[in-house]
Amino acid sequence: MNEPISTVTSVDGATSYMLSVLQQPKTSRACGYGEKAFEQRRPIDPPPIIELHIFDNYAQEETQVQVFGTFFLVATIESVSPYEKPAQSSNDELMIGISVSHMQCPSLGKSAFFVFPDLSVRRSGSYRLTFTLYSLFTDYLSALSGFFPILGV
Length: 153
Hints:
This protein is mainly beta. Helix content is about 5%, strand content about 45%. Strands 3, 6, 8, 11, 12 and 13 form a 6-stranded mixed sheet that branches. Strands 1, 2, 4, 5 and 9 form a 5-stranded antiparallel sheet that branches. A two-stranded antiparallel sheet has the order 7-10.
């Protein structure tokens, strides 16, 4: 995969968490509103993929991800169009699909991944996604995607 475009680190005592946006959304087509929105929607392409690394601050090394069920990532969207104020629309008004991803570990390794294959945007414009990591044991951590256009219906 390509080098991460956005990396954010948070320190929580003995452990550090790092989020990297490995696959940035590039574009999509607006799906609109109403009954046909679900039928006509096209997911954001390519689907965003975010990687989580966990570091042991005392050993100063990356650790194996061992607490699979405690982490989840939430995607929210914000408009960056020059004519629209970001606070004008709520996340539910702009985006449909599954905005929560559970952690996936392809093997017992040091990386975990979150994939968002089912996100669609209702209106044309320029947007970016914020990915917020939640855990049962720590505070949250966020990473931003790059800007991407949504084309008209």
